Every structure is written in C-alpha cells, then in structure tokens.
Amino acid sequence: MDINDILQIIVSPTTAAFALAAIGLNFHYGLTGLLNMGQAGFMLIGMYGYAITISQGGSMWLGILISFVGAILFALFLGWPTLRLRGDYLAIVTIAAAEMVRLIGRSQWLKEWTGGNTGLRGNQFKGPFENLSPFQPARIVEIGPFSFHTTIWWLMLVGWVAVAVAAALFWRLNKSPWGRVLKGVREDEDAVRSLGKSVYSFKMQALIIGGVLGAAGGVIWAHGNAVQPDSMGRVTTFWIWTMLLLGGAATVLGPILGSVLFWAMFVFIKQLAPLVLPNLAPQQIEPLALAFVGIGLILLIVFRPQGILGDKREISLNV
Amino acid sequence: MSDTKPNLFEGVEAKPGAAKPDPIIIADGITRQFGGLTAVDVKHFEAQRHAITALIGPNGAGKSTFFNLLTSFDVANSGSAQFNAVEPGKPDSDVRTIDLGGMSSANVARAGMVRTFQLTKALNRMSVIENMRLGAQHQSGENVLNAMVAPLWRKREKEITEQAEVLLERFKLLDKQDDYAGSLSGGQRKLLEMARALMSKPSMIMLDEPMAGVNPALTESLLDHIVGLKEDGVTVLFVEHDMHMVRRISDWVVVMAEGKIIAEGDPHEVMANQAVQDAYLGSHHDTNLFEER
Fold first, then answer.
1. Which member of B126, B150, B196 has the closest CB to residue A195?
2. Of A210, A245, A299, B231, which residue is 20 to 30 A from A25 by alpha carbon distance?
3. Inter-chain contact B133–A173, Cβ cutoff 8 Å?
4. Spatial separation of the C-alpha atoms in residues B51 and B38, rounded to whole Å
C-alpha cells in the first residue's frame, strides 16, 4: 500500500483534466439542469482538435483555438434540435453523439488524421507545449512526496491554473444575473419564458460554455496520456457525472473535490484489492475498482443526494 | 364596485365580441384544434385597457388554451391577435401596436404582457428575492459577457432589488425574501408569482386562476392586490371559477363555452343571462354555500 500513489493521483494532470470537465458539466446540470450525457464527447472533440492540428503542422495556439471551436460547433449541433424539446432528448442525443465521435475517431476512414483505433502518440502533438516549459533542464524533480518529470510539473501547473480559472468563472457567472436566469431555467422553463427571457438562447450558451470546458479538460488529459478514442467512452461520461454529484452540483468547489476524491478512491481501491483478495488477477483489479465506484454512487444518491458540498434545498438528484 | 369611477364600458354592447372604446387586445378568428377537437374558436375578442376583465366558463371551455394562445405559449391554427402596448408612464394615446402572431412567448412578455399560471410556477429552489429579481427587464448582466464584469450590472441590480423589496412589502412577503420559494405556502407562492410578474412593469397582466388553491384568509388580500393593480393602471385579464370573486372585482365578464365566446357584459347582468346559466352556472350559482362574512 503506497500512500504516495494516492497523493500523486490527487495532483495529477488527469485529476485536473476531469475537474475541468466536471466544472463544464456543472454549467450544464448544476446551473441549467441540462442532462448532458456526452461530456466525454466534448473531451474527445477537444483532444482531437488540438492534437490533429499540431500533428498536421499547426501551432499550439491554433490547436487550442480549433479544439474550442470544435466544442462550440458540437454544442450547436447537439443543442439546435434538442434544446427546444424536453430535457430527456438532450440526454439521448448527447449519449449517441459522443459515441459517434469516438467511433469516427477510431475508424480506419480518417486514420490519416486520427490514427484510427491506436489514436495519436504523444510525440505527435506534445512538443510545442513541452517546449514552453519554464522548468529547465528536463529532469525528474522531487518536492515532498511528489516526484515527477519537469514536463509533468509544467502540465500540472497549467492544468490546475486552468481549473482555478474555470472555478472562478463558475463562481462569477453563478452569482450573476446570467446565472440567475439559468437557475430559473433549471427550475421551470415556462416560468422564465413568461418573464421575457429567451430560454433557448440561455440553454445554448450554457451548453457551449460547459462544452468548451470539457474540451479544455480533454486537451489537458491528452497531454497527461495520449489521444486514445477508447479511453473516452460512455463510462468516462458517467465518471464525470459521479464526480459532479459526489462533490455537489451547483457548487463552485464541488466538481474539483469530486474529481480528487474519485481518483483517490480509485487508486486506493486498486491498491487495497490485491491485499484483501490475493487471488485476484491483475486485469480484474480495475473492473473491481469501478464496481466500487458504482456502489459509492448508489450510496451517495441514497444518503446524500446533494453531494458533499451541495445544499439540499437548492439541488439534489430527483431525476 | 366601480360606481364612483367613470365607467370604462359606457355604451359597450353586451354581446359576444363587442367592440371596446380602447382595446388593449384585439383577437380575430382565433382557432386551435387538438386532433378533431376544436378547443378554441373565438371569432372576435377585445379587452378594454385599464379594466379588470374576467374570463369564465365551465371546465374544458378553452379558457386556458385561449390564454396560452394570446401569450404565445401555444400556436393557433388560424387567426390573428394584436396587442396595443403603452409603455408605463406614457399617455394612453402613445399606443404601439404589436402583432402577436408568430411572436415568442418571451417577446410577448417583453412587450408588456405577462402572465401567471394555473399551476403556480414559483421557482422553488431559488430564494424569494431571486425569484423577484428574475422578473425584471433590462438587466445587462443577463448577457453572459457582461455577467463576468460585475460593475457593469451592480447598479441595475440594486435598483431591481429595491423595486423587488417594495413589491414584496406590498404583498407581505418581505420577511420571507431570503427563504427558498419552495418553503412558502401555496397561497404565498401565488402572491410571489404575481409580484414577480409585476417586476417587469407590465401594461397587462394575465392571471390564470389566481385564486385556485388559495386559502380563504388569503383570497381577500389577493383580491385587493388585483384591484390595486388596476388602480396602478395595469390592465388585468383573469380566468376564474369562483363567481363571487368575479362579481366582486371584475368590470367586465367574458363567458366561454366549448371554445366560443357565448356572452359578454357587466358581471351582474351576464350572470343573469339564461344562456350563461345553462352553459355553466346551473340554477344554484347564486346560493353561497358558506355564510357571508
């Protein structure tokens, strides 16, 4: 049992990336009540937009721009037919669209750009960002219990600054008249409509902002790992939901706390399992950890539907 | 009840579709079909400005559907409607005619015609004061880019809050302003919904069964509030079932049955009308089942 592994996952780029995606989902669900079941699709769009641009010779900034524009277009594409309808339709369309992105990404058809089912390797797109690293020369640096390569330190710094910026954005917008309209939409669309607000436009704005944050999470995640379509399947979306509901929807810090706790628990169970069940094969450990995540989610909904930081009077799961 | 005031309906003929001297709404040939059922078939309808008009009729007469059509919450199969808006504070001669056809419900509200709902739509998981603030218009902070820069909208937010507090005071909800709307009683929620609708300073308010589910102690004050709206120059159109309420506060009554307007007129005269009694009231409409207070 290695406590360092747990501490390391807590600060890792993966945790930051998922915190970003969960903050994005918080704009959708926590603030507006939109059931986006395809946040992994936004992450995939983000990482493909970024990595393909760079691997085809574009600059890092162009890559970021394309990844965000991709997320905006994806949001418009999803929202245009569904946001006028009842909430369930968005859920159905997003879950399918996210799978479509994954399947197109892994198909042989666009292999030249996407790399097919093997995806894009790190050295095809990580260069420009890593060259910006102020931590030179490149080597392993140890601070307290954390021992990482300088490129990871650099990525973690950028990742967590992005999370802080996203959290600040959520805090500001949540407490603004704009956020108030969205909360009204979450409660009752027709009431908000009767007060002279164009509900459709507000929902679309929320979908776009949350989607762009998802794309940003995808970019960070790709840097910590690689572009791999199958790592962003339906399950990933449910992880993000678990994080948001665990930490507390409609709160500023909830999604961040949720992401941290989720990954800490995940690593903890992965470490604990072989100690408790010595006969477990290595490939059985991860599914077991995921099963516990599922049990955790059930317990959460039963005993604390508003999440750890949430206010029960304001939001709790009642879908 | 308006004996001491000038009669707005002087010379208006008491017949379905009667023309009014200063109509705020004019609707023509409005129909709405659900499958084979014609829910609304209104040949002509006018509502007089600055008056309280009641829309009555048996269940299924199409009153709420007609309301939804006028406020664009539903789309008519045929017909046209216009709204003669006058901005608050402007003289009545300064009319802006708005074609309601094809308008979104949000735009109808922005034009000055706001509504409430039969099933109260208080935003339960928002505080009372936030509910109120949401009703206001012209808050630039509702634009997402402006929202990020608080100094751009703080001043307006303060004005809105002050306006909200005045209204809450009037509706006796001021001490509840920080409570979640969901914690209010049904009647208080009705009051909140009405107060919230007034935040936009509408020229016309449409109340869909404002008394439904409100306890008798509150109905009195609710009635006073509706009469108060009229005194502030707001035109009121409301759907109601309780005939005593209708008789007490309305200046004009429009009776619907099976989607059509079957009678119109002064509340007392209309209720004496045989066709109305046959369609709706039955012979016992005048017996108060409870003792008069």
1. B196
2. A299
3. no
4. 29
Q: Comparing C-alpha atoms, which of A262, A264, A244, A241 is closest to residue A252?
A: A244
Residue of B213, B252, B227, B224 whose CA lies nearest to B56: B252
* C-beta separation of B132 from B195 below 8 A: yes
Over residues A110-139, the mean pLDDT reads 90
Question: What's the gap in Å between the CA of A214 and the closest CA on chain B?
Answer: 18
For residues A195 and B198, what is the distance between their CA atoms, to the nearest angstrom? 10
CA B42 – CA B21 distance, rounded (Å): 20
Report the C-alpha dihedral over residues B223, B228, B234, B235, rounded to 10 degrees. Answer: 40
In this complex, the residue of A187, A194, A199 whose CB is nearest that of residue B125 is A187
- Chain B residues in contact with A170 by the CB 8 A cut-off are none
Contacts of B197 in chain A (CB under 8 A): 194-195
Q: What does the pLDDT look like over A63-108, one tens digit per residue?
A: 999 999 999 999 999 999 999 888 889 999 999 999 999 999 999 8
Cβ-nearest to A176 among B116, B135, B147: B147
Decide: A230 and A117 in contact? Cβ < 8 Å.
Answer: yes
- CA-closest candidate to residue B181, choices B240, B223, B120, B232: B120
Q: Which residues pair with B97 in a beta bridge?
A: B84
Mutate to test the interface with B, among A169, A176, A190, A212 (most CBs of B within 10 A): A176
Q: Could you give the 3-state DSSP secondary structure of residue A215?
A: helix
DSSP β-bridge partners for residue B80: B28
Nearest CA of chain B to the CA of A315: how many Å? 7
A173 chain-B contacts, CB cut-off 8 A = 144, 147-148
Report all structural domains of chain B as residue ranges with CATH numbers, in order of start: 1-121+200-284 (3.40.50.300), 123-183 (no CATH)
- Inter-helix orientation angle A3-11/A254-276, to 10°: 150
Touching check for B98 and chain A: CB below 8 Å?
A: no
Contact partners, residue A304, CB within 8 Å, separation at least 6 = none
Give the confidence band of A250 by pLDDT, cuts at 50, 70, 90: very high
Task: Please say whether the beta carbons of A70 and A49 come within 8 A.
Answer: yes
Extract the residue ranges of chain B whose pLDDT is less than 70.
1-6, 88, 280-293
Least Cα separation, residue A147 to chain B (angstroms): 38
B214, B171 contact by CB (below 8 A): no
| CATH, domain A3-123+148-303, list 1.10.1760, 2.60.40, 1.10.3470, 1.10.1060 | 1.10.3470
Quickly count: other Cβ atoms within 10 Å of residue B158's Cβ.
10
Nearest CA in chain A to B115: A194
Q: Do B134 and A181 touch (CB under 8 A)?
A: yes
pLDDT digits (tens, 9 = 90+) for A101-121: 999 999 988 888 898 888 999
List chain A domain ranges. Answer: 3-123+148-303
CA gap A281, A287 in Å, rounded: 11
Substitution target from B110, B121, B178 for chain A, most A beta carbons within 10 A: B121
Bond from prior residue into A137 cis (ω within 30 degrees of 0)? yes
